[in-house]
Amino acid sequence: MLTSKQRSRLRALANGIDPVTQIGKGGITPSVVRALSTALEARELIKVTVLESCGVPAAELIQTLAEQTFSEPVQAMGSKITLYRRSERKNFDHIKLDV
Fold first, then answer.
1. What's the number of domains the chain is made of?
2. Which of 19, 22, 74, 89 sits a CA distance of 20 to 30 A from 48?
3. Is residue 94 part of a domain?
């Protein structure tokens, strides 16, 4: 569970990154979950765009995505979702959450 200060730091870091994928009318599929999990392992902090054709707002999808990717929900704003998961990789410059 992230504290409000940690979440604030992650939101600030997420301002400069582009979305890694889009969720459209197919919704959350196993392939989308795999792609997001791989991206989280590589980057730790990712953004996802939820298209209007999905039919479900980003605010409703964020918790489901977080559970399925074993990540922490950071923010759902408009059509964007931000997720964080600490990478298991060694020799990786991890995001510092100690504020």
1. 1
2. 89
3. no
In a domain, 52, yes or no: yes
Residue 38: inside a domain, yes or no? yes
* Strands laid side by side in the 21-23 sheet: 21-23, 45-50, 80-84, 72-77
Q: Which two tokens stand for residue 71?
A: 């990540």
Per the structure, the complete domain to which residue 48 belongs is given by 4-84
Tokens of 73: 């929900």
Phi-psi region of 31 (alpha: psi -120 to 50; beta: other; left: phi over 0): alpha
Other Cβ atoms less than 10 A from the Cβ of 14: the count is 18
* Ordered per-residue pLDDT tens for the chain, 99 residues: 889 999 999 999 999 899 999 999 999 999 999 999 999 999 999 999 999 999 999 999 999 999 999 999 999 999 999 999 998 888 888 888 875
Structure tokens at 19: 């979305």
Which ranges constitute the DSSP H helices of 1-99?
Answer: 4-14, 30-43, 58-69
